[in-house]
Every structure is written in structure tokens, then in C-alpha cells.
Amino acid sequence: MTVLAGARLFDPETGETVRADVRLSGDRIAEVGLGLDGERVDCSGGLLIPGLIDCHVHVAFPRPEPLPRSARILEAVSVLRGLLARGITTVRDAWGADAGFKHALREGWLTGPDLLVSLRQLGPTGGLGDTWEPRAGAVDRFADPSMPDPLFDGPDGARAAVRRMVRAGADWIKVGASGSMRAVRAGVDVRPTDDELAALVDEARRCGRDVLAHAHTAEAVVSAVRAGARSIEHGTFLDDAAVSALAGAWYVPTLSPLSDSEYADPHRRSLRLAAEAGVRIAAGSDLAPRPHADLTTELRLLAAVLGDAAALKAATSEAARLLRLDDDRGRVEAGLRADLVWLDGPEVDVSDLPGRVRAVWHDGVRVGEAR
Question: Which Pfam family, just one, is annotated for this protein (predicted)?
Fold first, then answer.
């Protein structure tokens, strides 16, 4: 059995570090303590953290230029490999990847993190999932049977849309509770009704699925949380009512895409309001814009508001709770998954995680080694 020896371990629940060894057995952490026997990997002077979890990615989103459908799939190969190499061992895809990616990862055809998929973003006619152009009408950039029609109108239509996603292999159901930022600012934000949202979340629960809700505005956040969405994505313009509602959900702020925009300050203000109110915060990068901004970028932005330890918690133990995986990963404890990242230096500092990564273990196997 492999023993990772000599490092300090980061505990995301306390934000503290402690000197200990970690013994791996298969895909599990067998024991944590001092002086453990086994084939030693000398991690002296370093920091061991749980494998990172990104709760909002788009690993296979279409590029803006007109390309064959295969392009988004082939690009995803390098994206997934790069995420794992940087210590991101679990991701929740929030639109773009179909169930075939999960199969390919399980079979070893691709190298990458564990993947949860939502397939497409559900929404009403005229909402964010409705790709309609004045010159061409409906334009579907996915146009693939494995990515079913995401549009609905009325509560029964919302239930049917959920069933289509579940049939096609969705782990989570994503809904556009507000439109895009462009639609919000232009005053053309088409949102689901409260009855539609309630029916959608209820049907997801009946099918054993949770709901993540894209929501920029405070009104959309309140509607989605009241309907029972488990996580709110973006939450750019929170107010006191939205923060109060978020006591019943997780907040995934995805600061990266707007970090250089006019919306960066109100977005950071929303995060501060949520943090001060004790809202549960999980990390998500919104990995999609090119060039890709991954979770290591998001963690720097989170740390500027929350601090480094809290940012890491948002990408480990708190992210695992949101995804209902906290009995399996997110902490360095005996019995949990052997997803670990060895960082140079003992500091709890996320300012340059890619530059500090010495090694990554995923399912107990060092990344880059044959399984």
C-alpha cells in the first residue's frame, strides 16, 4: 500500500493543517496518522488537500465559430485531461456534456475527473435555453438525440422536459430561472413561472434528481429556491430577500466569467452578503469561456472575499455536500475516496495552485501512471 508521508494535511472543516501520513488502499484512504507503514512517497514540506470539486463546468460547450459537431467533443478530451492534472477530480457539468462522456471516462477511453451531467439547460420558450435567431428561427447547436429538447411551456411541459433529461442519462436537472446576463440587462428576461418551477423541481425529485438553477437576478433566485432548487448558480444581483431565501440552498457564485466586467463589483458584493449571512457556498468556475478559466482561477477570486481556507472548503467538503457526495469524498479521512492533491509548501494559499501541484491521486492512482 502507498503511504503519502511527511506532508501537512488540510482540514476544510476547520481551515487548519496538521502533520500526518496518509495510507492508500485501492481507491480508498485506508488510514491517516503518523508513522504509517507502506511504500512511501516523500511529501515532506508539502500540503495534502482533498481532490478539488468544480460544481459548475461546461466541458463540451460549442465554440462560437461554425464547426462540425465533433469539434466540441474533441476539444473536451484535452479540457478533461487538463482539469485532472490540476487537481480537479470531480466536476458537475451544467450544460453541454452528454452521458457518453461519463461512459468514456468509466471505460478509460478518456482521462479526466469524475463527471456528473445535466445535459442541457431547461427553460421556457424565449428563455435562455431557446436558441432562436430572427433570420433563421430555431437554431440547435447541439442537434443530437442524446441532448433532448430543453424547452417547455406550462407545468406539464416542465415535467415532460425533466423526464426527457432523465431518460437521456442526466444526473442533475438544470433550469434557467433567469435569462442570460445580456437578456437581463436588455429587459427581455423571459423566466419560468413559479408554477412551472414548482412542477419541474417536483418531477426531478420524483425521478431522484436535484435541480441547479441559473439565476442572475434576486427575483429569480427567490423563485428558484422557493420551488426547491438545491443550488443557485451565479446570483449576480442578490439582495436581502434573496440572501434570506438562500438559507435553504447552496450558492455557486461563478465569479470568473464576470471578473473583468462592469458586473464584477455587484457580484462580489452579492458573495459578501451571502457569506456574512452564513449561506452555504460551493465553488464553480463556469468553465466555458475561451480561454478556459478553470477552478484554480475561481478559487483566487473566492479567496479575495472569503479567505483562502474558506475558498478551499467551497471546492472540497462543501462542494461534496452540495453534490450529496460528502460520505465519499471532499475530506482527507479514512474510508473516503483517495482523491488527493500534493502541493508544494505547507501554506494554505490558493494564489497559484497550478504552480504548486506536485502530484494528483484520483481513485487512489497517481495521475499519469497506468491503472
Answer: Amidohydro_1
